[in-house]
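job 3f2a | input accepted
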Amino acid sequence: MPGAVVVIPTYREKETIAAIIERVLKSADVHVLVVDDNSPDGTGQIVDAIAATDERVNIMHRTEKNGLGTAYVAGFGWALDKGYDYIIEMDADGSHQPEELPRLIKLLDAGANLGIGARWIPGGKTENWPWYRKLISRSGTTYARIMLKSKLHDITSGYRGFSAETLRALDLSQLDSAGYVFQIELAWLVERSGGVVREFPITFIERLEGQSKMTTGIVVEALSKVTTWGIASRLGRIPKSQSLAAR
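job 3f2a | predicted structure (247 res):
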């Protein structure tokens, strides 16, 4: 069994998914797990056809769209059951560059519990992002760093990898989030429990096909959750999901 699997959640990603899978497999010695939320555009069927001819590609079909966090938790469970050493997150829309996978895996090989591809550190950058997307991302990251007393520069980044031991040590069923704020919660959980978190610079490219899943509701959910966790932390009332230790 190869050491790493790249988990890619999908919903309406038919324009990009085949090319992303091809690039991932060319970039590193990894397997791929696509977690498809019953995409009405046939994304799942495209991956089915690829998986039928390549044993490195797998797909999990979910019956409905239940949030990014739940898709990743389902994928993590599958990967842990299969015995992978490293479990990597990546978007399906081309914003994360598969060619940067070797650097992420190198961090995990060096002992990191969590490796994060960061846009907001020296060497990191974004391409084709409108000013308001940069503002939302930078502001959200800054707010989360302040409220959660985090040292991470890109705690919202979705390009990241975990050691299997780290995920096994966490009770993922107790996580408090289901949407994009799941990324903040999980990184903070690893960081505050003493895990080794390393960031490396990436180039984030705005998707060329399809539509962004970012909505006002997602932003509001993130602000609400981060505020609640930050206040609870200051009062010594960390939710159960936030008091677990990654060992």
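job 3f2a | The two ends are 23 Å apart (CA to CA).
job 3f2a | closed
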